Amino acid sequence: MAGYRAEDDYDYLFKVVLIGDSGVGKSNLLSRFTKNEFNLESKSTIGVEFATRTLNVDGKVIKAQIWDTAGQERDPQILLSKTECFYFLVLKKFLYRAITSAYYRGAVGALLVYDVTRHATFENVDRWLKELRNHTDPNIVVMLVGNKSDLRHLVAVSTEDGKSYAERESLYFMETSALEATNVENAFAEVLTQIYRIVSKKSVDGGDEGASVPAQGERINVKDDASALKRVGCCSG
Ligand SMILES: Nc1nc2c(ncn2[C@@H]2O[C@H](COP(=O)(O)OP(=O)(O)O)[C@@H](O)[C@H]2O)c(=O)[nH]1
Ligand SMILES: [Mg+2]
């Protein structure tokens, strides 16, 4: 692994979002990748958080800004009158929309996570993918991640099912364990590498249609994307 440079010394900044049901291990994948930490207690993520890590791809310093959020917000456990309830729901819908679009804005990569021991989290992948597609550039690099692969005796979603879903939807695919630190580095590094390939090819090609990812044929348009700006006098994040 190449050495780290100073915090603000990087060639590219890429925003990557973590999505998937609550409890699948998004926050632990993030802490494993950015701090090499794992937490056995489930602490729900409040609002939106992000963490960064810098890594080397093809001799370039890539700063990954990874966003993490709560998969589902829970309604407050208090009794509300009908009117209060109405206002609460309207406000919630409004806030949810605002937060959702801010969350996805400028993302050039995504890890869509499910829990291999809970089939329902795999069934919900469809919904997450729709939301992602509704809010991001069609050429975003997406990896489907089946997390908790260490719980071998509890597996409810086979590797084959994950893989074929990913193929059908043109996503990358990996099974990970945030607990055992299996494939976590690989999953993030693969997404960042594919983004970098697209971006660097794009600058060589002069930003036209030619930037395709060899394996998946995915393309990404980062021309107008502040998060993927090459750091030549741009504002730092
Ligand atoms: N066995 C196992 N448990 C995990 C793994 N990743 C997360 N967990 C546990 O699953 C629960 C939810 O994890 P968390 O990261 O908070 O999920 P999030 O809601 O998607 O952010 C916690 O109790 C974690 O300790 C994993 O790879 N293996
Ligand atoms: Mg979380």
Automatic annotation (TrEMBL):
<dbReference type="GO" id="GO:0005525">
    <property type="term" value="F:GTP binding"/>
</dbReference>
<dbReference type="InterPro" id="IPR027417">
    <property type="entry name" value="P-loop_NTPase"/>
</dbReference>
<comment type="similarity">
    <text>Belongs to the small GTPase superfamily. Rab family.</text>
</comment>
<dbReference type="InterPro" id="IPR005225">
    <property type="entry name" value="Small_GTP-bd"/>
</dbReference>
<dbReference type="InterPro" id="IPR001806">
    <property type="entry name" value="Small_GTPase"/>
</dbReference>
<protein>
    <submittedName>
        <fullName>Uncharacterized protein</fullName>
    </submittedName>
</protein>
<dbReference type="GO" id="GO:0012505">
    <property type="term" value="C:endomembrane system"/>
</dbReference>
<keyword id="KW-0636">Prenylation</keyword>
<dbReference type="Pfam" id="PF00071">
    <property type="entry name" value="Ras"/>
</dbReference>
<dbReference type="GO" id="GO:0003924">
    <property type="term" value="F:GTPase activity"/>
</dbReference>
<dbReference type="InterPro" id="IPR050209">
    <property type="entry name" value="Rab_GTPases_membrane_traffic"/>
</dbReference>
<keyword id="KW-0472">Membrane</keyword>
<keyword id="KW-0449">Lipoprotein</keyword>
<keyword id="KW-0547">Nucleotide-binding</keyword>
<keyword id="KW-0342">GTP-binding</keyword>
